[in-house]
Design goal:
Blueprint lengths: L1 E11 L2 E11 L7 H16 L8 E4 L3 H10 L8 E4 L2 H9 L13 E6 L3 E2 L5 E2 L6 H10 E9 L12 E5 L4 H10 L3 E4 L10 E6 L6 H9 L4 E4 L1 E2 L6 E6 L2 E5 L2
Parallel strand pairs: 3-4, 3-5, 5-8, 8-14
Antiparallel strand pairs: 1-2, 2-15, 6-7, 7-13, 9-11, 9-12, 10-11, 14-15
Length: about 250
């Protein structure tokens, strides 16, 4: 339950940080993690709504926080034309709300992509792919003019890598890629029983401190057999809406 929006602005160590008009729990107590997800989902709708047009296409990500966004987005589905989904599960949920879903190949421009993350650092670099949709998420994010990342505060880290880094791999290359990943100093673990929407497998790279996310993203993508990896650094978030127990904070580089 949420009952109010509370605006304020302050200066942080990393530049201007704005606490957006934010949700406060109706009881006056701090929000739970589920309430934070709901809060950032509604904040994302409020963030994009002023710039939506009748012909606007909205890119939508995958995961529990993205699902909250889809449910909130449905409340203003008459304000935009259609959506592009980063996974089959997201497409199904959008259609369930009566929102038209387009193939990305039919879309020439997209104003926003809204999605969650598994980790983010102070430079707006992300790790994504915990839900297995990293390749399609990265493609949709690449097309959008603005990537709006919605998270709760547990996803904020000083250094990426505590969350295992997903790497999507062509099945026949799994062992080869695993050896290459191990040579980088991490521990690759096959995500058993998981097949991506693209028909590929995932190796999760554990125990790797990511000191240079952009360089590592390129290095991993150059391994033969890798489709892509879950580092969103070369194209990181443009804005992060972060749920906290007190409300939603907007972070910009």
């Amino acid at each position: 339950m949420v009952s109010a929006w509370l605006p304020s602005v302050y200066k942080g160590n990393a530049g201007l940080r704005i606490i957006t008009p934010q949700f406060e729990p109706a009881t006056g107590t701090e929000m739970t993690q589920d309430e934070m997800k709901q809060a950032v989902a509604h904040a994302a709708v409020e963030y994009i709504k002023p710039r939506l047009r009748d012909d606007s296409i909205v890119g939508v990500g995958t995961g529990s926080t993205a699902n909250c966004f889809i449910d909130a987005l449905a409340q203003i589905k008459d304000r935009f034309a259609a959506a592009v989904a980063s996974s089959e599960a997201t497409a199904e949920r959008l259609r369930g709300h009566g929102i038209e879903v387009l193939d990305l190949n039919a879309v020439s421009e997209m104003e926003f992509y809204v999605d969650g993350a598994d980790e983010f650092d102070p430079h707006m670099n992300l790790i994504k792919g915990g839900g297995g949709a990293l390749t399609r998420e990265k493609i949709v994010a690449a097309v959008a003019r603005e990537f709006v990342c919605i998270v709760d505060q547990s996803k904020r880290v000083d250094l990426l890598g505590a969350f295992p880094l997903p790497v999507e791999v062509i099945p026949m290359a799994r062992s080869h890629v695993g050896r290459k990943l191990a040579a980088l100093g991490g521990q690759p673990v096959y995500r058993e029983g998981v097949v991506t929407d693209n028909g590929n497998v995932i190796l999760d790279l554990h125990d790797l401190e990511i000191l240079d996310p952009k360089a590592l993203e390129v290095q991993l993508n150059n391994i033969v057999g890798v489709v892509t990896n879950g580092l969103f650094a070369c194209r990181g978030a443009d804005v992060i809406l972060m749920g906290t127990p007190e409300g939603v904070e907007t972070l910009k580089a």
